[in-house]
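REQUEST ID: PR-0412
SUBMITTED BY: lab tech R.K.
PRIORITY: routine
TASK: structure prediction, single protein chain
INPUT:
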Amino acid sequence: MGYLLYSLSFSFLVLATALYFTRKHWIPYLPFADYVYQRLPSSFAGDIEAGLSSNEFDLSTNLASGDSRAGLDEHGKREVRRIMKRRRVGFDEARRIYTEQRFAKNNIGPDGRPRDPKFVSFS
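STATUS: complete
OUTPUT:
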């Protein structure tokens, strides 16, 4: 009986240690991981500080002009941050991936044209 208890205790200790040292690989896959560590900013200044701005997507002009809006879309920010964290890409690449995913959900091709077979376009 003592041998069984010792084996179970040792196995649990080894498993807990392995999970602790590999947590950066499996924590992003937990359903609540996006909400636990960071609070999303609610202004353009907060978005810039959080790294949600770049040369191609410049929010400093909004900040300089005194824009009173609440900042970027909360759902979009959350998804872009998740993509940045999981795929380890920069803001521009994560924003491109997010946009392509949104296009795919709405039956739009990566080039921006609808995938509807009944769609007619005149050039």
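NOTES: The mean pLDDT is 78.
REVIEWED BY: pending
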